[in-house]
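Q: Sequence in, structure out?
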Amino acid sequence: MAPPPAFDPRGLTRPAPVLLGYYTLVSLATLAAFPVVWLVSFFRYQTLQYAFTDDGFSMSWGILFRREVHLTYRRIQDIHVTRNLLQRWMGLATISIQTASGSATPEMQIEGLLEFEPLRDFLYMKMRGAKGLDKPEAPALPESAPSADEALALLRRIASDLEVVVSSLPARKDSTP
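A: Exactly. Output:
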């Protein structure tokens, strides 16, 4: 059985369409403020974009106040996945990215994700790789590595040489009573 293909986040450029439904339900909970909250959420959904590159990722949104955040994988300190009851029902999650900026709030929150677990794992892998915490590579074998038979013959020769050396040493007297 072939392993599953590696997750490639470069295909994630927009949030899942179900995020607009989530925003609508959250806006309905605000009762009288529904039109204003829904309109703000609608424009946020329409302008929300993600871009993942080899060095990092960026997120942008907004019409009146355009906001763009770019993070390199090297700056990531911690990653949190949060899912409230409504998000779990809709299959959504939010990934919060912490950096060493000193702020108590996350530097970036990636919303509206259906593939949140592969993305979280990808970000962890990139974070560790960017900081040199990847698994160390196995040392390369010398080009002329002896075969098992050659190694066994070499060990036998060393053992016989050691026997000769030990037998040629004068008998040792113990000084302890």
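DSSP finds five helices and six strands in the chain.
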